[in-house]
Amino acid sequence: MESFADSRTFMLAQICQGNERVLSQLYETHRMPFIRWVRYQYGCDPEEASEIYQQAFVILYKNAKSGKMNQLKSSIRTYLYGIGKNLMYNLWRDRNRNMTHLEDLHEEQHQMDITYAEKDQRAHQTQWIESLMEQLNEKARQVLYLYYFANYSMEAIANALGYKSEKVAKKIKYDALQKLKKLARERKMTISVF
């Protein structure tokens, strides 16, 4: 009676010699049990399980032809299932990486959407405030522009515009803001920038 090791050695030798009948028999013998195992163990659909089997069998064939399986201690079935397990692990790892990448992209897109919406809202609000500021006199516009857009201090504004003191610049700023608020109320809008 032929031993397990002798049978395995014979099959590997036949594969290395290019015996297509043995290769085909080996392929068919393990195909359906492997596919059922992958579907049950990993929850794959039939197509995916068949694809994993194809890949696993090609790896087994290449390893047999290259002599990598000459020192094999396990059965060919166990070796084939081990390849399948590694392929499934790699598939899951890649899917998880892709899902994480997709989630990151989704979050990034969401942040960009918020950023674009905020920029659009700010641009609209700035444009609206600028239209209100056009209704102010030149002194008021200059003080507000220097204070809010150029970030000048009240002292720097007084010096830049030639006022006697910073109190004069503060008074012009206060009056300009009151007028802007009144104009905004008339248009039923609120000013949140100032």
Primary descriptors:
0% strand; 2 domains; 80% helix; rod-shaped; 194 residues; Rna Polymerase Sigma Factor, Chain: A
Could you characterize the architecture of this molecule?
The chain has 194 residues and is mostly helical. The chain has two domains: 4-101, Rna Polymerase Sigma Factor, Chain: A (Orthogonal Bundle), CATH 1.10.1740; 135-186, Arc Repressor Mutant, subunit A. It is 80% helix and 0% strand. The protein has seven helices and no strands. The chain has helices spanning 4-16, 20-42, 46-66, 76-133, 138-149, 154-161, 166-186. Helix 2 (20-42) crosses helix 4 (76-133) and helix 3 (46-66) crosses helix 4. The protein is rod-shaped, with a radius of gyration of 38 Å. The mean pLDDT is 80.
